[in-house]
Amino acid sequence: MNLIDIYIHEVTRRLPEKNREDIALELRSTIEDMLPDDYSEKDVKMVLEKLGNPAVLASRYRDQPMHLIGPHYYDVYITLLKMILPIAMMITLISNIVDYFIQYSGDEALINVFFHIFGEGVWGIIEAGIQVFFWLTLTFAIIERTDKGKEGQPFTKRKMKWNPDDLKNISYIPKRKAITKWEVFGSLFWTAIWGTVYFYANQLVGVYRGGEGRLDFIKPAFNQDVLLHYGPLVFIVIVAEIALALYKLNKGQWTKKTAIFNFAVQLIGTIAFIVVLVQPNLLNQDFIVYMSDLFTISSNQLETWIVGGGSFIFIISAAINVYDGFRKAKIR
Q1: Which of 1, 131, 143, 176 suits a disulfide with 5, CB 3.0-4.6 Å?
Q2: 266 with 234: CB under 8 angstroms?
Q3: Taxonomically, which superkingdom (predicted)?
Q4: Helices and strands (DSSP H and E) totals, the chain
């Protein structure tokens, strides 16, 4: 990508999504009008230098000026916010889980423990997010108004006045191709959830009976001995998913290698899931009888629905995931 494209991207990425395309076209036209017919890179740098720092130019395109945090500190403020928020939320969630289990007496059903931790965890995450946003914004607002030596120029990493050569140090990743830290965090969180459910299925998955403000677990759906027999295979899938998440975090974007890695993990996961699901003694007999009576169908029909439906949904989900990975890898 040339300097003009990177400069336009650096301006428009700071603007609302709905205005980016129009402003990009307008800015490109302005730059081309300022360049001679047979221009060189030196001419481009001169034009970009006249236009100035992308952060300042972006602030001029905004419908509303940034009153609270100006362009001088805005990029640093956003960078720190994106860095600190996930860390604070993760620490809060882990602290809530550890604190709960320290006080756990063992009398509460595991599903109620799960709901309790989930509820407390969500509220704790929201509270931590509000606290971080408030105090970080307040700190930068104070610095913005007390700093007398900024001379209207944004704060750069080199602590020097911006020049077009700074664009060469920017790694441009199209938004549709990028892998966000939230996506990686979501993948790890999902792996932790389904892994926990698998190894504690006899206490989590089954029939519940409500009453007196709580849920009582009365009948497990799966035979835990069968699940644990395939524990090493499932453990390999968990390790593969964690390795993929860390690889995506390191790359930061979808590439052909990332898509192939994702395909391999989805294939391993699908095979493992189907191998476990087709085991004849996987479902608890009491559960089969209970559900067959409930839906007035035969035991064979119930098992066919669970095995066939589960396999179909898993295969379709994996295929969509693989297709989406290769599609994003092709984006330039």
Answers
A1: 1
A2: no
A3: Bacteria
A4: 13, 2
Tokens of 43: 């001419």
43 CB contacts (<8 Å, ≥6 apart)? 35, 36
Question: Can you tell me the distance from the alpha carbon of 163 to that of 48, in angstroms, rounded to the nearest whole number?
Answer: 8
pLDDT tens, residue by residue, 7-52: 888 888 878 777 788 888 888 899 888 888 888 888 888 888 888 8
Would you state the structure tokens that stand for residue 75, as one six-digit string?
């990029």
pLDDT at residue 74 is higher than 90:
no
3-state secondary structure of 224: helix
d(CA 195, CA 263): 20
pTM for the full model?
0.65
Nearest to 41 by CA among 164, 173, 171: 164
> In this structure, are residues 121 and 97 in contact, taking their beta carbons and an 8 Å threshold?
yes
Which one, of 174, 151, 153, 162, lies nearest residue 72 by Cα? 153
177 Cβ contact list (under 8 Å, min separation 6): 253, 254, 328, 329, 331
Confidence (pLDDT) at 65: 54
The amino acid at 108: E
Determine the Cα–Cα distance for residues 143 and 225; give it in Å rounded to an integer: 61
Sequence-separated contacts (24+) of 104-109 with Cβ below 8 Å: 109/203, 109/214, 109/215, 109/216, 109/217
Q: What is the pLDDT of residue 105?
A: 63
- What is d(CA 153, CA 162) in angstroms, rounded to the nearest whole number? 8
Share of the chain above pLDDT 70, in %: 86
Say how far residue 159 (Cα) sits from the centre of its chain: 31
Under DSSP, the state recorded for 106 is S
> Cα 97 vs. chain centroid, distance in angstroms?
21
CA gap 208, 122 in Å, rounded: 24
With both helix axes pointing from N to C terminus, report the angle between 41-51 and 3-12 in degrees, rounded to the nearest 10.
20
Kind and range of the H or E run holding 228: helix 224-229
Q: Which two tokens stand for residue 66?
A: 């940034």
Q: How far apart, in whole angstroms, are the C-alpha atoms of residue 331 and residue 50?
A: 32
